[in-house]
Amino acid sequence: MNTSNQNSEIRSLLIVDDDDSFRIAMKQILSSSGRYRVRSCESGESAIEALQQERFDVVILDYRMGGISGLNVLQWMHEQKIDTPVVMMTAAGSESVAVEAMKLGAYDYVRKEHIEIEHISILVDGVYERYLFRKEKERREAIEREREKSLVAIETFHSTLASIAQIVNNSLSMVSLNIQEHEREMRPFVKDEGQLRLSQAFAEMKQEYSVIASAVKSMLNMANVLHGNFTDANYTMRLQEALNGNLKSLQQQGVTQQFPKKP
Question: Mean pLDDT, the chain, as a whole number?
Answer without folding.
Answer: 80
